[in-house]
From TrEMBL:
<dbReference type="InterPro" id="IPR011603">
    <property type="entry name" value="2oxoglutarate_DH_E1"/>
</dbReference>
<comment type="function">
    <text>The 2-oxoglutarate dehydrogenase complex catalyzes the overall conversion of 2-oxoglutarate to succinyl-CoA and CO(2). It contains multiple copies of three enzymatic components: 2-oxoglutarate dehydrogenase (E1), dihydrolipoamide succinyltransferase (E2) and lipoamide dehydrogenase (E3).</text>
</comment>
<dbReference type="InterPro" id="IPR005475">
    <property type="entry name" value="Transketolase-like_Pyr-bd"/>
</dbReference>
<keyword id="KW-0496">Mitochondrion</keyword>
<keyword id="KW-0560">Oxidoreductase</keyword>
<dbReference type="GO" id="GO:0030976">
    <property type="term" value="F:thiamine pyrophosphate binding"/>
</dbReference>
<dbReference type="Pfam" id="PF16078">
    <property type="entry name" value="2-oxogl_dehyd_N"/>
</dbReference>
<keyword id="KW-0809">Transit peptide</keyword>
<dbReference type="InterPro" id="IPR042179">
    <property type="entry name" value="KGD_C_sf"/>
</dbReference>
<dbReference type="InterPro" id="IPR029061">
    <property type="entry name" value="THDP-binding"/>
</dbReference>
<dbReference type="InterPro" id="IPR032106">
    <property type="entry name" value="2-oxogl_dehyd_N"/>
</dbReference>
<dbReference type="GO" id="GO:0006099">
    <property type="term" value="P:tricarboxylic acid cycle"/>
</dbReference>
<protein>
    <recommendedName>
        <fullName>2-oxoglutarate dehydrogenase, mitochondrial</fullName>
        <ecNumber>1.2.4.2</ecNumber>
    </recommendedName>
</protein>
<dbReference type="GO" id="GO:0005759">
    <property type="term" value="C:mitochondrial matrix"/>
</dbReference>
<dbReference type="InterPro" id="IPR031717">
    <property type="entry name" value="ODO-1/KGD_C"/>
</dbReference>
<dbReference type="Pfam" id="PF02779">
    <property type="entry name" value="Transket_pyr"/>
</dbReference>
<keyword id="KW-0786">Thiamine pyrophosphate</keyword>
Length: 981
């Protein structure tokens, strides 16, 4: 009471807007506060918030000339009525009829009880005054006076019917008011007969498609949509509405449940192709058109694309992204692909290209990548202007009940974290489903933010069609057994209205069945065409069966100088940190002298040269703008104003500011890597890179590596040139900051260790036939060329770069500018031109045959510099050291060249990592195959030097690390065989 009196006496009560009131206002002190507030308003209307000014004007103006039934209304009752309305807006969804099975056991919230607000049955027929400030959505009848019964009826109809709206958690008042206007109408939207016939037709297609598959392939897994068939007409209406609002392209990601139905009925993948895949699978044939087979995947993982006509007469391009069974993993891939579409189509306001994600209820609540993806939705370099999320809520995740699968009321509650509206809808009510799908499209196009549709349905069969669901949900499946389908319910509704006859319904059924059977007949002779597999941007790119000539990657000296000056120059008025200023002065001197080019400058030169050539470059990851090791500084900050400057934005005249994009990402590996993967798949004329903060942090995105990057081309025939930068190197920083887990990427490489492929340069397809490339580069120039190689060829492969840490500033890890150019005779130029060196031979000018060399040490990465330094100290002129820069695919030809050069040398593989890690397990069988062909001994003749096998990647004790490192470097140069205890 004292607090309220103090607030009432305050000079500015206007600081408490009416809209901020909550249920806590209903204690016994509210009337005192209202009286004080009214007196303040009477003394000076401008002294209170505008909302209170409107309230008192409306209420007291009405009370000044009371009508029957209003004479007894008090301000306290008016406020109680306001809070009752607010309770329905906030919690009405808890009373909505959402579960088509009627098994919902949610308790009705206490705040929907009239008694809580002091109202009784006797008040139901009393009339109450409603101002515009309270009930704008209900005033379409232009009746500011309603009985309490009428008010309750409208609230129940709006918030407690087959749709439950959650939106009052959104802090934006305009957004909430927009939704109120849409929700609080006099009656639910009535659709005309022609629209209802379209909906009926679409629902029959959805239902009959599943029935047809079930009849033809009774024992096949198809993860059908039975129980959630309204998804299909709902999606179609959503797409139609989106097209009306300006959307031209939609990228879709979804799990296996209902995927075949979406493919056939929404995206319009040829039904004959779907049926052919059921009958044993059709595979594209090899040939000049670029088609190839790969390993393929199960039919409910595949994707496709199609230009679909809409009900409004427009066309909209739909693409369904292929994905694995790892639930929700495709989410960020779809978002990244959508963002890329927006970039390439100059869709700056993000209204023409849209992403749609379909989820399962268990996975939406349980998979962390869902939140990681939602979290990207408003970030400047990741936003797509809103994604529509549709949760196909079966109410069972495999065999797990909701109470065991999540800790929240709804599976969609995670979306509240980013303030998006959530529309829960009863999946049996087709028109309600259509309504929320249209509303979701309107929201997305209006506010350019995410929205969630929670389609509450059920699974008529088990997790798959040969599963027995009654083992774990007997009560639910007893209800399902006797529950009519959504199609039966809608047909009954239309028949009862008299809008359609039984003959009308039967005609549609007959038409659908006829087409399904016709397509089934065609499936026996179905042959896919190129359009099924390749998109327009990728026209002309080679498959693994077609030779792609190796191209030079050098750049003209004058171009290098010009872009070098651009990337090392800051505006005169710009005031960088003094240390950064010094770095840029040193970089400018490197370009001017052409000597001492370090890693960061080489990278920037690669980016700049690609931009000059018209390519898009995008780099993202945690701290990539500055660089984890404070080496990149691609974005510089003015120390006085905080303004940012990116030199790579100024490489060419009038450069599109997004042609080069560098962005610090959120602290996510899974979603951000997936985003960049999706981005890279849209257009091959782009260099897209993701950098891990430390190499081993990439294991937070292991699903992306396992299921998409390493195997996506084999399974789905989709190429990507994504570059992954993984900082790696043993510097004594402990087990979490040393290893990029190089062995994992090499283990996933699919080249055969016992078969040497064709290595003639004119016939070689080694890289094309491998799933990806793994490199551990040791010079800035070679890093420059391996990045440019990603673009300068007629195919795309992922590139895993084991990136350096201490080599970023190592005094020996430098290159001259001449190693970057394409001038014959310069250091980077050989008889094949200027290009990436898969192996770097010994730095000494050895002849083609050196019989005096007793030991050939093969290594990769920074350990080379320590080996070379030790060789100098010990004056070991009988030891040769070669760097294997490209680990996978293995450079057999160059390895054999060096084996021939040193015919008397003992062969050593040296690495920093433990024996069970690093490259040894990958290198040793391939090195043996190269040796065997030349008659150079047995597998035992390969000497291993490195750390002993270990569970942890590295020691956490600096002194132990130093001792280990010193010993392995010395052992690598010893003439005696290396033995570990």
């Amino acid at each position: 009471m004292t607090w309220l009196r103090r607030r009432a006496a305050a000079p500015a009560p206007r600081a408490v807007p009416l809209s901020r009131l909550t249920d806590s206002f209903l204690d016994g002190t509210s009337s005192v506060y209202l009286e004080e507030l009214q007196r303040a308003w009477e003394a000076d209307p401008a002294s209170v918030d505008e909302s209170w000014d409107n309230f008192f004007r409306n209420f007291l103006g009405q009370a000044a000339s009371p009508t029957a039934g209003l004479s007894g209304q008090t301000i306290q009752e008016s406020m109680q009525l306001l809070l009752l309305v607010r309770a329905y807006q906030v919690n009405g969804h808890m009373k909505a009829a959402l579960d088509p099975l009627g098994l919902d056991d949610r308790a009705v919230p206490e705040d929907l009880d009239l008694a809580l607000y002091g109202f009784t049955e006797a008040d139901l027929d009393r009339e109450f005054f409603l101002g515009v400030w309270m009930m704008a959505g209900f005033l379409s009848e232009n009746r500011p006076v309603l009985t309490l019964r009428e008010i309750l009826s409208k609230l129940e109809r709006a918030y407690c019917g087959p749709i439950g709206f959650e939106y009052m958690h959104i802090p934006d008042r305009d957004k909430c008011n927009w939704l109120r206007e849409k929700i609080e109408t006099v009656a639910p939207r009535e659709y005309p007969k022609d629209r209802r016939l379209v909906m009926l037709d679409r629902l029959i297609w959805s239902t009959q498609f599943e029935n047809f598959l079930a009849t033809k392939w009774a024992t096949a897994k198809r993860f059908g949509l039975e129980g959630g068939e309204t998804l299909i007409p709902g999606m179609k209406e959503m797409f139609d509405r989106s097209a009306d609002l300006g959307v031209e392209n939609i990228v879709i990601g979804m799990p296996h449940r209902g995927r075949l139905n979406v493919l056939g009925n929404v995206v319009r993948k040829p039904l004959s192709q779907i049926f052919s895949e059921f009958a044993g699978g059709t595979r594209p044939v090899e040939g000049e058109d670029g088609l190839y087979t790969g390993t393929g995947d199960v039919k409910y993982h595949l994707g496709t694309s199609y230009d679909r006509p809409t009900r409004g007469g427009k066309r909209i391009h739909l693409s369904l992204v292929a994905n694995p069974s790892h639930l929700e993993a495709v989410d960020p891939v779809v978002i990244g692909k959508t963002r890329a579409k927006q970039f390439y189509s100059n869709d700056d306001d993000r209204t023409k290209n849209m992403g749609i994600l379909i989820h399962g209820d268990g996975s939406f609540a349980g998979q962390g990548v869902v939140y990681e993806t939602l979290h990207l939705s408003a970030l400047p370099n990741y936003t797509t202007g809103g994604t529509i999320h549709i949760v196909v809520n079966n109410q069972v995740a495999f065999t797990t009940d909701p109470r065991a699968g999540r800790s929240s009321q709804y599976c969609t509650d995670v979306a509240k974290a980013v303030n998006v509206p959530i529309f829960h809808v009863n999946g049996d009510d087709l028109e309600a489903v259509v309504r929320v799908c249209e509303l979701a499209a309107e929201w997305r196009q209006t506010f350019h933010s995410d929205v969630v549709v929670d389609l509450i349905c059920y699974r008529r069969f088990g997790h798959n069609e040969i599963d027995e669901p009654s083992f774990t949900q007997p009560k639910m499946y007893q209800v399902i057994k006797n529950h009519p389908s959504s199609l039966k319910l809608y047909e009954q509704k239309l028949l009862e209205t008299g809008e359609v006859t039984k003959d009308d319904v039967q005609r549609i059924h007959d038409k659908v069945n006829r087409i399904l059977n016709e397509e089934f007949a065609k499936s026996k002779d179905y042959v896919p065409n190129k359009r099924d597999w390749l998109s327009a941007y990728w026209t002309g790119f080679k498959s693994p069966e077609q030779i792609s000539r190796v191209r030079n990657t050098g750049v003209k000296p004058e171009v290098l100088k010009r872009v070098g000056q651009a990337i090392t120059t800051l505006p005169e008025s710009f005031k960088p940190h003094r240390a950064v200023k010094k770095i840029f002065e040193q970089r400018a001197a490197m370009i001017e002298s052409g000597e001492g080019i370090d890693w960061a400058v080489a990278e920037a030169l690669a980016f700049a040269a690609l931009i000059v050539e018209g390519n898009h470059v995008r780099l993202s990851g945690q701290d990539v703008e500055r660089g984890t090791f404070s080496h990149r500084h691609s974005v510089v900050h003015d120390q006085e104003t905080g303004a940012k400057y990116c030199p790579l934005d100024h490489v060419v005249m009038n450069q599109n500011e997004e042609l080069f994009t560098v962005s610090n990402s959120s602290l996510s590996e899974f979603a951000v890597l997936g985003f960049e993967l999706g981005y890279s798949m849209e257009n091959p004329n782009s260099l897209v890179l993701w950098e891990a903060q430390f190499g081993d942090f990439s294991n937070g995105a292991q699903v992306m590596f396992d299921q998409f990057l390493s195997s996506g081309e084999a399974k789905w025939l989709r190429q990507t040139g994504l570059v992954v930068l993984l900082p790696h190197g043993y510097d004594g920083q402990g087990p979490e900051h040393s290893s990029s887990r190089l062995e994992r990427f090499l283990q996933m490489s699919d080249d055969n260790p016992f078969v040497i492929p064709e290595m003639d340069p004119t016939l070689r397809k080694q890289i094309q036939e491998c799933n990806w490339q793994v490199v551990n580069v040791t010079t800035p120039a070679n890093y420059f060329h391996v990045l440019r190689r990603q673009i300068h060829r007629d195919f795309r492969k992922p590139l895993i770069v084991t990136a350096p840490k201490n080599l970023l500033r190592h005094k020996e890890c430098k290159s001259n500018l001449s190693e970057f150019d394409d001038v014959e005779g310069h250091p980077g130029f050989d008889k094949q031109g200027t290009r990436f060196k898969r192996l770097i031979k010994d730095r000494n000018d050895h002849k083609e045959v050196e019989e005096g060399i007793n030991r050939l040490v093969l290594c990769s990465g920074k350990v080379y510099y320590e080996l070379d330094d030790e060789r100098k100290k010990s004056e070991r002129s009988d030891v040769a050291i070669c760097r294997v820069e490209q680990l996978s695919p293995f450079p057999y030809d160059l390895i054999q060249r060096e084996l021939k050069r040193y015919p008397n040398a003992e062969i050593v593989w040296c690495q920093e990592e433990p024996m069970n890690m690093g490259a040894y397990s990958y290198i040793s069988p391939r090195l043996y195959s190269a040796m065997k062909t030349l008659g150079r001994g047995t597998f035992e003749d390969i000497k291993y030097v490195g750390r002993a096998p270990s569970a942890a990647t590295a020691t956490g004790f600096l002194t132990v690390h130093v001792q280990e490192q010193s010993e392995l470097v010395k052992k690598a140069l010893q003439p005696e065989p290396i033995k570990f205890p």
